[in-house]
Design brief:
By secondary structure, this protein is α/β, with parallel strands linked by helices. It folds into two domains: 120 residues, D-Maltodextrin-Binding Protein, domain 2 (3-Layer(aba) Sandwich); 98 residues, Periplasmic binding protein-like II (D-Maltodextrin-Binding Protein, domain 2), CATH 3.40.190. The protein contains ten helices and ten strands. It has a five-stranded mixed β-sheet. A five-stranded mixed β-sheet has the order 7-6-8-5-9, sandwiched between helices. Strand 1, helix 2 and strand 2 form a beta-alpha-beta unit. Helix 2 runs antiparallel to helix 10 and helix 3 runs parallel beside helix 4. The longest helix has 12 residues. The relative contact order is 0.21.
Length: 230
């Protein structure tokens, strides 16, 4: 009886626990988001990867409080499957071609060049989806299809070119700015693909404060310092 009284008294005490916020984020956000998470007044754990892969993990029950995607297709996909989500856009980016070869006059020049081209998976990775749209817009996707190396994230595509395992890569401007030793061969016209817009999805009440913080001036200044647009 004494033991039961002790257990009842113990369970009545308030429970103090670390309120960790789990964020699933597009790999291209790693540099600014690491800085934002460090300056945020709270414990933030960020898992980086391809937007499509993470959207499917969240749908299957992965414990995330906030989801940051680089593509509205995956935002629409998860919104159609999970009701009542709070969604906001918070940053933008631009597509570029990087490589150690000569500068390109236009995207169609990729069809006349030799060598492999690294891209994110064209059906799941946002940068790959944008790259596919741009290549199709100028009519050269079929011409370069046998030279494409599709990888799980845009950062992986950029790394292949850095390591010399691909001759060129279609990546984000922010990836190119992070590694100025790898020249930009071409700024891909934004008219060739859908707008590159990053969206945040609030998945739980625990992530609400960080979700709001991402939209504030401090976080916006960090994103812009790494080359992201508003």
């Amino acid at each position: 009886m004494r033991l039961l009284s002790i257990l009842i008294a113990f369970t009545a005490l308030p429970v103090f626990a670390w309120a960790e916020i789990v964020v699933f984020a597009a790999a291209s956000l790693k540099r600014p988001l690491d800085e934002i998470a460090a300056q945020y007044d709270g414990e933030v754990i960020v898992s980086y990867g391809g937007s499509g892969t993470m959207a499917q993990q969240i749908y299957r029950g992965a414990p995330a409080d906030v989801y940051l995607s680089a593509n509205t297709e995956w935002i629409d996909w998860i919104a159609s499957r999970v009701d009542g989500l709070d969604i906001t856009q918070f940053a933008s980016n631009q597509l570029v071609v990087v490589g150690r070869g000569p500068r390109l006059a236009e995207l169609t020049d990729l069809a006349t060049m030799s060598g492999h081209i690294a891209v994110g998976h064209m059906r799941s990775v946002p940068a790959g989806i944008y790259a596919r749209a741009a290549l199709e817009a100028v009519g050269v996707r079929d011409a370069v299809s046998d030279r494409l190396i599709e990888v799980p994230s845009v950062t992986a595509a950029h790394r292949l070119v850095l390591l010399g395992e691909a001759d060129s890569g279609i990546v984000y401007l922010t990836d190119a700015l992070a590694h100025p030793e790898l020249p930009v061969q071409l700024m891909v016209p934004s008219t060739l693909h859908p707008d590159i817009s990053y969206s945040a999805v609030l998945l739980s009440p625990e992530g609400e404060d960080f979700f709001s913080y991402l939209q504030g001036q401090e976080a916006r200044a960090v994103f812009m310092s790494y080359g992201f647009g508003p």
